[in-house]
Amino acid sequence: MGRKLLTEHINVEGINTFDVYRKHGGYRSVEKALKTMTPDEVTEEVKKSGLRGRGGAGFPAGMKWGFLAKPEGVPRYLVCNADESEPGTFKDRQLMTKLPHLLIEGMITGSYALGARTSYIYIRGELLYVLRILEKAIAEAYAAGFLGENILGSGYSLDLHVHPGGGAYICGEETALLESLEGKRGNPRNKPPFPAVQGLYARPTVVNNVETIAAVPVIVNEGGDEYAKIGIGKSTGTKLISACGHLNKPGIYEIELGLPVEEFIYSDEYCGGIWKGRDLKAVVAGGSSVPILPKELILKTAAGENRLMTYESLSDGGFVTGTMLGSGGFIAMDETTCIVKNTWNFSRFYHHESCGQCSPCREGTGWMEKVLHRLEHGHGSMHDIDLLVSVAKQIEGNTICPLGEAAAWPVAAAVRHFRHEFEWHVTNPKEATAPGAAYRGAAVLA
Amino acid sequence: MAKITFDGIEVEVPDGTTILNAARQIGGGIVPPAMCYYTPLKGSGGKCRACLVKVSAGSAKDPRPMPKLVASCITTVQDGMVVENTINQQVMDVRKGIVEMLLINHPLDCPVCDQAGECSLQDFAFEHGVSTTRYEEERRTFEKIDIGPLIQLHMTRCILCYRCVYTADQLTPERVHGVLGRGDASEIGTYIENIIDNEFSGNVIDVCPVGALTDKTFRFKQRVWFTKPVDAHRDCTTDKCNGRVTLWYKGKDVLRVTARKDAYGEVKEWICNTCRFDKKETSDWVLEGPAHISRASVIAQNHYELPVVNPQVIQDLPESTTRELERNPPLRLGGLNN
């Protein structure tokens, strides 16, 4: 049984209230940080912990904090990115619903480390009920003296606001989030300047994922070195994985990084295997934007080693035979799944969510969706399959923000590993478009 | 000052200059195309991705190449930077891809479009595009939106460069239009079909790189390459308008009035709507002489000089490089006659 750092008390009755949370050791990190540590010491602990951004990119959080420009007399901000909307990822929602005070505690400790006097939680528009939970928890924290003027008599003051978005996936991109928070249209900004220099209201800003911030109290309480002992290599600590799809026990699991993927899928402690005793066909390991991998490659790397749930192991083999840990949206698909249909579905999402600012993404996402729609419905040609790869390549790397890549990668990977299935849709359209039809042939592994 | 090498040509520019503007100082065929960037408009650029270039050395201090292609219009130069544009195959391939993306939902109605002949997209496609399309789907179309008696908004042709939005934001006191919707459904609009009524609103016509915003008083009057541009001015009483314009003649008639544009189609001095829409008699104006069209476009045919490299730059080059440039020019010298 792996250690649970974030979700240890998640099922305690009333843990979403201040009193119960406090009784279970809540807000200790705030006391420890404000009373015994300097802001730089807190940052140093986070650096030592090796904590990496849990939102998808996996950038070391301590390093990100270290990049924050700190000019005199200019306010700085910590913004929590709670705009979780990647298909397959639903860990932050659970964390905020059940443990709102953990996020608030992390926000206070993190803001103290960064010297922010006002901090924001930008929450996805669809999660209005979570917003209410957070607002209630924030009010409790204010009442208990953990927010507001002169927290715990330390002289440090912090205001924390929750702000709902309009429900756009693109606002999870950090600069689009900042634009939206400023009250503008959620278009990503051109970088540089990076938010660490010019972020919210053109002030230095750090944007962190909910799970990243929730890990800060643990790191402060236990020490960065202690946290870094969990995990393998540069993948330290625990990670929430939201497992969904054709699994016996889908749900949110806190795993120690380094857990073998095979164990995660098949052991009874975690997902309990594929439902109805079927065979696994493919896995999208980190939310819909990461490359899909066939069963053979998700369980073992191309070199034949066990694939582990770490940033490095999952990306072993690059995009030819590897994928990414991403945001931890683990989608398992059984043998009855149609990969073409699935790719079309993902593509439809990115088409719908593209902000329309830069041309490759605006036009390319729609184009890919239409071609995939044609293929899925049996009207495609062999030429369309190559066209998909070509369009994906034209988008990738040429856009303002990573949404272009997020749209291109799944398509490119699906064609790479399941080309036979796409071709089957072209050569046997009647069979392929029959209800419940799925290709059972082998995947391309290299 | 920062010295950069652009396509093998060295140029020295002030710190903070963008790569695109540094390339424009060299001039000629090596200048990356710009569909959304517009020098006078703050915040413009970075959207169309037409100007992507390869930075093969970031600076003298840190000569590592930049991992991705960068938008030259918003990336500032560093001393010792080495940039590859026309000499880099990847850049050329990507540019071809951008043309394709911009054109898949474009109606290609150039034969009936007033912008034809002075259209940035037309030039861009002519230079970098292919003559066939791989797009088999239905193209996106929009209903025409009425934004008043002077300006025609034809969203179907729009490439969403945001220039008109910035113009309205920065030139006029009230913002009345913006981008509505998302992705390929986004459109320029005034929300509940408001009329754009502002003394400087006509400038959105000049900044529009395509035929999405056209002059209603000039629509379908004449193909632009049949009209004769003449520089003129008048004592304009409108605040912030200095009345320096280009009149476009057909015979004795002034068919339209526009602001003066430079070689990259950019307006440096905005003009008011009175000058643009109301003063269409020669007697309203003091004529200065034929306007020089330095754009390499259809409009420039027949009265058109060759695009040339800034002579000062040529002079500063070592002789071997000059000879090499003459033998193997990075720029296509001359128009269709060559």
Report the end-to-end length of chain A measured between terminal Cα atoms: 34 Å
Q: Classify the helix fraction of chain B into a percent range.
A: 10-25%
Strand content of chain A: 5-15%
Give the overall shape of chain A.
globular
Mean pLDDT of chain B: 86
SS summary, helix count of chain A: 19
What do the pLDDT scores of chain A average to? 95
Report what the structure shows.
The complex is a heterodimer of chains A (446) and B (338). Chain A contains 19 helices and 11 strands. Chain A is of the alpha/beta class and 446 residues long. Chain A has a 5-stranded mixed beta sheet with strand order 8-7-11-9-10. Chain A has a 4-stranded parallel beta sheet with strand order 3-2-1-4, with helices on both faces. In chain A, strands 5-6 form a two-stranded antiparallel ribbon. In chain A, helix 2 runs parallel beside helix 6 and helix 15 packs antiparallel against helix 18. In chain A, 57% of the residues are buried. The two termini of chain B are 37 Å apart. In chain B, helix 2 crosses helix 3. Chain B is built from 8 helices and 14 strands. In chain B, strand 6 and strand 7 form a beta hairpin. Chain B is of the alpha+beta class. The interface between A and B is medium-sized, with 30 and 34 residues.
Secondary structure elements and their pairing?
The complex is a heterodimer of chains A (446) and B (338).
Chain A: H1 18-23, H2 28-36, H3 39-49, H4 61-67, E1 77-82, H5 91-98, H6 100-114, E2 118-123, H7 128-143, E3 159-164, H8 174-181, E4 205-209, H9 210-222, H10 224-228, E5 231-232, E6 235-236, E7 238-245, E8 251-256, H11 261-266, E9 280-284, E10 292-294, H12 295-299, H13 311-314, H14 318-321, E11 329-334, H15 339-353, H16 359-376, H17 382-395, H18 403-427, H19 429-433
Parallel strand pairs in A: 1-2, 1-4, 2-3, 7-11
Antiparallel strand pairs in A: 5-6, 7-8, 9-10, 9-11
Helix pairs in contact in A: 2-6, 2-9, 3-4, 3-6, 5-6, 6-9, 15-16, 15-18, 16-17, 16-18, 17-18
Chain B: E1 2-6, E2 9-13, H1 19-26, E3 52-57, E4 70-71, E5 82-84, H2 89-104, H3 120-128, E6 145-146, E7 151-153, H4 163-171, E8 178-180, E9 187-189, H5 203-207, E10 213-215, E11 228-233, E12 244-250, E13 253-259, H6 273-278, E14 286-290, H7 311-316, H8 319-327
Parallel strand pairs in B: 1-5
Antiparallel strand pairs in B: 1-2, 3-4, 3-5, 6-7, 7-10, 8-9, 11-12, 11-14, 12-13
Helix pairs in contact in B: 2-3
